[in-house]
Amino acid sequence: MVAQTIRPTLWIIVDDGSSDATPEIVSHAARQHDWIQLHRRLDRGQRQVGRGVVEAFYEGLSLVRLDDYDYLCKLDGDLELPPDYFKRLISLCHQNARLGTVSGKVYLRRRNGSLVSERVGDDMSIGAAKFYRVSCFKDIGGFVRFPSWDGIDCHLCRMHGWMACSIDEPELRVIHLRQMGTSQKGIWTGRKRWGWGKYFMGSHPLFMLAVCVYRMAERPWIVGGLGIAAGYLSAMVGRHVRFEHAGYRRFLRRYEFSCLLLGKRKALRNLHDRINDRGVVASRGHKWNIPTV
After folding, report:
1. Element at 248 (helix H, strand E)
2. Residue of 77 and 270 predicted with greater confidence
3. 164 domain residue, yes or no
4. Nearest to 216, CA basis, from 225, 228, 204
5. 18-34 pLDDT, tens per residue?
6. What integer pLDDT is reported at residue 283 of this predicted model?
7. In-domain check, residue 252
8. Strand ranges (DSSP E) for the chain?
9. Is the pLDDT of residue 43 over 80?
């Protein structure tokens, strides 16, 4: 973060029960850089994937006045960012006033040093490094405190007339130090939780079938996709709770069927074209503030 060509105005690191030297490392960094702050919260006693990370994020966010900032980023601690990461994201937001949330793509580094993509869809900003225009974040009401929060928010963005995406460029490639969709209890548990989250999100069973087949073609071969299917079916049979928001599920499923019929890239491009067309009218005569970070 110190090496970024555009550094954050403020970086709050929330420690919620680390058992390693994280507090000492952050405290040392904070003494050297006044824009770094450590916030320690009570150890909740166990890991809470989805809800836990969002609650930690909101506790950090409660320490700032959001209206004082133009941009907001939620970061995980197991990442390596390229030095122009924030500079490039701000440039993209300058270029398109309807771009609400954007990120780079996430990669794993193999032992031989080569990179392999975690295959995140273009229609999602990655949950590990979500960069938001503050006005968009406020428009959608922020994040929900459940698994799949990092997909629901992107669909809500598009519902509210904002674009949401991730972009694969060398200066935006994020190195993930732990594979996405894993768990402290193993990848099977992590992938089942992924499937449960997709059920909570409201995804249609036919779209989920395509998702599971797609994820079978990556490590761990076959098993990952089966785990997602098992989690989704378990939640469906058990009639688990689903995300409720006026008009959201109809909007989501219309988009999902468009992806199945046209392919995700074309479906996303068509939707973003409509958002841009509406945005030109909506923003006419509106003066955008010059962003500072």
Report:
1. helix 248-262
2. 270
3. yes
4. 225
5. 888 989 999 999 999 99
6. 34
7. yes
8. 11-15, 36-40, 71-75, 79-80, 99-104, 106-109, 115-117, 129-133, 163-167, 174-176
9. no
Q: Is 249 part of a structural domain of the chain?
A: yes
Neighbours of 111 (CB within 10 A): 5
* pTM (2 d.p.): 0.89
* Structure-block tokens of residue 141: 């009401």
How many independent structural domains does the chain possess? 1
In the block, tokens 């133009």 appear at 70
| CATH number, domain with residue 259 | 3.90.550.10
